[in-house]
Amino acid sequence: MGQTPDWIAVDWGTTHMRAWLMLHDGTILDRRDSDKGMGGLSRDQFEPVLTDLLSDLASDTKLPVIVCGMAGSRQGWAEAPYVAVPCVPPGGDAATRVASDHWDVRILPGVKQSNPADVMRGEETQIAGFLASEPDFDGILCLPGTHNKWVHISAGEIVSFRTFMTGEIFALLAEQSVLRHSVDTDGWDEAAFTAALSDTMSRPSDLAGKLFSLRAEGLLNDMPAAEAKSRLSALLIGSELAAAKPYWLGQQVVILGEGAVARAYEVALNAQAAMVRCVDAENMTLAGLTSAYSQLQESTS
Amino acid sequence: MGQTPDWIAVDWGTTHMRAWLMLHDGTILDRRDSDKGMGGLSRDQFEPVLTDLLSDLASDTKLPVIVCGMAGSRQGWAEAPYVAVPCVPPGGDAATRVASDHWDVRILPGVKQSNPADVMRGEETQIAGFLASEPDFDGILCLPGTHNKWVHISAGEIVSFRTFMTGEIFALLAEQSVLRHSVDTDGWDEAAFTAALSDTMSRPSDLAGKLFSLRAEGLLNDMPAAEAKSRLSALLIGSELAAAKPYWLGQQVVILGEGAVARAYEVALNAQAAMVRCVDAENMTLAGLTSAYSQLQESTS
Predict the structure, then answer these.
(1) In B, residues 41-80, which contact A (CB 8 Å cutoff)?
(2) CB within 8 Å: A219 and B178
(3) Residue B2, exposed/middle/buried by CB under 10 A (0-12, 13-18, 19+)?
(4) Which of B67, B120, B138, B284 is deepest in the core (most CB within 10 A)?
């Protein structure tokens, strides 16, 4: 270990956690990963996991640790109660302080909405990071993931949002349902995706009847797995886009994400003539944590 | 073991199998269950499983064994190729004979449809059983299950059908998704079911956006698990009914099924002013296998 970091940024989700060793000036000294997500930990296991991951760091001073994500849920390290919309993405001053012998830990709150009932934990920090670089943004953020979020941003605030379980449903159907036999491939068929998306957008209520057809087409007509997988994705994303239309129609949309899933949403939204661009989600998480850290430094100096 | 049966009726599905020890006159001597479904067996394991389950039966004569279900699929005991609609439910004369040292085994075929692509294996035998008692039925059969089927019957034939994965999707969402925390109960809230069904039928394309709300309502507003579970069921069944409307609207509908799931479909269809009644599905399976056996007896006598 060379230089000692000034603080630690942590994104602690359900299935994994990431830590960045940071300097005041934004330099990243190191980035570390762990599969010790919140879902597998009891309350008293969070600090040992963190200390284990950072065991090489000097322990005579309690380094600041800024945490976002599911570690702040009721079943997590310590509950960081939700802030209600409309609100600016909660920053360092809204964080919950956690007692620790080794670290100065602050956990950022999630955001809630009463009607329709909805919650986020972690995405609000990505949003804060995005708004740090584009403070005047007015429009829609789309955050693809296990639970995809559509977020309306105006005047620096989260106005409203809606969560779709599309990513989780895709994974369950593709890996555990009878469709797993039909979509078992790393391949992708963009033409099939676009065609099935267009079908679904024009008749979203047919979704339920079209899923088993993917299996039957494989059994009877040898539909290639890449086509079946792309059509499955189009059915689910198309059905989400149909329900989320009030969010994206005629709006400026920024997708916080990268890789195949973000690309699928970009293709799908482009096919609907929406104005779309993508930005890197991990960078936004780190920018949001950095913004919370800076806010705390200012308030204590 | 008392009286020796004249033949064995077998319903061999993906996750379990059932055998009935039968006399010519329709008397059931015994009924036996096994969890050795087709899904966990390789081709050469079917006969040992059967012989094991019936180990007390005299083996000097090869008893007739009539099998329906997934044992006839390509990955099963022996492939019994699909018969294409429109067709009468395939009977004993369409069965595939399987070589066996101990039994005279016949496996009944499934039914396929080209457009939209669809398949059934096992349900065709329930349909044959139903038509044995109501040969003049003209209308719709609804067969709830892991993969729910809607079947148009006219002039004794299967005219067309459509499969919905509603049962499997409900199980995946209720047991394995983030919603499992919100719907973990044996309870049921029929008022919540009926209200959510009505909502879903009027706006079926909202399905994707309403699922995560069940979780958020639990976190923010302590929605009872029985209400969340009933609403989840209503979202999925409502979405199926919306897509299957051409099948049931203005038609006579018979549900082949019993228990909570069949009851949910009955309530849902009644709420849509459809003409519905329920008949026992297991009885229909046995009646269909009996009909196939009688047909074979006649053709060999």
Answers:
(1) 74
(2) no
(3) exposed
(4) B67
- For chain A, the average pLDDT equals 94
Model confidence at B301: pLDDT above 90:
no
Cα B285 from Cα B130, distance rounded (Å)? 8
Q: Do B204 and A209 touch (CB under 8 A)?
A: no
Query: What is the fold of A163-279?
Result: Nucleotidyltransferase; domain 5 (3.30.420)
Q: How would DSSP label each residue in A99-162? A: --SSEEEEE---EEETTTTEEESSHHHHHHHHHHH-TT--EEEEE-SSSEEEEEEETTEEEEEE
The CATH architecture to which A7-121 belongs is 2-Layer Sandwich (3.30)
Say if residue B60 is exposed, middle or buried (CB neighbours under 10 Å; 0-12, 13-18, 19+). exposed
Look up the ipTM and state it.
0.92
Nearest by Cα to B13 from B69, B66, B67? B69
CB-count burial class (<10 Å; 0-12, 13-18, 19+) for B33:
exposed
Report the alpha-carbon distance of residue B275 to residue B272 in Å, rounded.
Answer: 9
d(CA B300, nearest CA chain A) in Å: 33
Chain region(s) in chain A for CATH 3.30.420.300: 7-121
Please tell me the pTM assigned to this model.
0.93
Q: Are B220 and A176 a contacting pair at CB < 8 A? A: no
Q: Which of A152, A153, A171 is nearest to A162 (CA)?
A: A152
Q: Confidence class of residue B195 from pLDDT cuts 50, 70 and 90? A: very high
Provide the token pair at B49. Answer: 């499983």
Higher pLDDT, A26 or A258: A26
Q: What is the pLDDT of residues A60-73, one digit of tens each?
A: 789 999 999 999 99
C-alpha B99: how far from its chain's center?
27
Confidence of residue A58 (pLDDT cuts 50, 70, 90): low
Q: Quote the DSSP letter at residue B2.
A: -
- Among residues A102, A106, A81, the alpha carbon closest in space to that of A93 is found at A106
Crossing angle between the packed helical segments B225-243 and A207-221, to the nearest 10 degrees: 60
- What pLDDT score does A1 carry? 52
**Model confidence band, residue B209 (pLDDT cutoffs 50, 70, 90):** confident
- Per-residue pLDDT tens over the stretch B56-100: 886 678 999 999 999 999 999 999 999 999 999 999 999 999 999
